[in-house]
Amino acid sequence: MRGVTCLAISGGVGGAKLALGLATYLEPPELAIAANIGDDFEHLGLTICPDIDTLTYTLSGLSNEQTGWGRAGETATFMRALEGLGGETWFHLGDGDLALHVARSQRLRAGETLSGITADICQKLGIKARILPASDDEVRTIVQTTTGPLALQHYFVRDQCAPTVTGFHYEGADTARVNGEILEILSAPSLRAVIICPSNPYISIDPILAMPELKQALKECPAPVIAVSPIVGGEALKGPTAKMMQELGATVSAETVAGRYRDLIDGFILDPTDTSLEPSIRAMDTQTLLTPSVMRSLDDKVKLAQAAFEFAVSLS
Ligand code: FO1
Fold it and tell me: How many whole angstroms from 69 Cα to the centroid of ligand 1?
């Protein structure tokens, strides 16, 4: 797209924090976000897109800061009434959030594309950055566990990340057509940085990288590609990343994450807690930057966004 200087690759909560920092630091039209769709699922007859919605609510200032997902100030009339009717209530849908799912599901059934609907919703919510679903085709993350395969939301919410993970399968990733706008951006002369956000590598980033055409476009991208570690000091900043790493037999460290991205990235951002990991990551022919990576305040998010963008640009 004309004028996009930064493409962020993001999943839900952790990535959305950096995306907000980037949208605040950059001029909004400069930022595009390739959003994970592997978490999407059909529920109660609705198509629900959690990572797209977390990015949408976060960038529009509507998000529930406590949970990181859904809307702030929600009422639960729908959920209570649904419970009274014996409906499934393990996946919490606030009344305002429900409107988004109903509107989107109706428009998808009418034949609109997910990217077209998402662009329209962003426009209606005053979001200037571009939230780009990785594909308008279906990609679904299946979590393989010792007790059998699970759809992502069943693993993550219904079963509260309890099952032991043995692997992942990204259903549809090998045939899904990459969102053309993302491919356009990756070859646009205006692009100066690609930033893989600190989201869960397995369930938020890999479903995007599992699309061969997108991975190839990243490898051929003339702009530097960097990643921000979602692991600080051997702990995940949010969610089941560390537990998954452990169960897969990998060391729970930022180095493991850098190793997973090594054939894609030019640089990797570590929190100063992990200074000792720098030499082994540089040995992967990856540049490193040490900078505070725990984002609590908006100021933290903007500072990390600025550091990440300037670090990436410095590698070109
Ligand atoms: N996460 C939960 O842990 N419990 C929920 O009830 C829940 C509901 C929910 C509704 C809409 C939405 O966009 C996200 C929601 N999430 C919930 C978070 C969601 O499961 C995760 O954000 C991702 O899918 C994993 O990154």
Answer: 6
CATH code, domain carrying 78: 3.40.50.10680
Instruction: Tell me, in angstroms, the distance from the centre of ligand 1 to residue 125's CA.
Output: 20
* Residue nearest to ligand 1 atom 4, measured at CA: 157
What averages of pLDDT result for each successive group of 10 residues across the chain (316 residues)?
88 95 94 98 98 98 95 98 98 98 98 98 97 98 98 98 98 98 97 98 98 98 97 87 97 97 98 97 98 96 98 97
Q: Which of these, 123, 153, 162, 172, lies nearest to 49 by C-alpha position? A: 153
Bridge partners for 225 per DSSP: 194
239 Ramachandran zone, left/alpha/beta (phi>0; psi -120 to 50)? left
pTM for the predicted model, two decimal places = 0.97
Could you give the CA distance from residue 302 to residue 295 in angstroms, rounded to a whole number? 9
Max CA distance (Å), the chain: 59
* 192-221 confidence digits (pLDDT tens): 999 999 999 999 999 999 999 999 999 999
Report yes or no on 282 lying in a domain. yes
Helices 50-60 and 114-124 pack at an angle, to 10 degrees, of 20
Among 42, 118, 157, which residue has the most ligand 1 atoms within 8 Å of its CB, making it the best to mutate?
A: 157
The token duo for 143 is: 């979590």
Alpha carbon distance 136, 117 (integer Å): 10
Over the range 82-113, which residues count as b (16 or more CB within 10 Å of their CB) and which as e?
beeeeeebebebbebbbebbeebbebbeeeee
Instruction: Print the domain residue range for 271.
Output: 6-314
Q: Do the domain assignments include residue 210?
A: yes
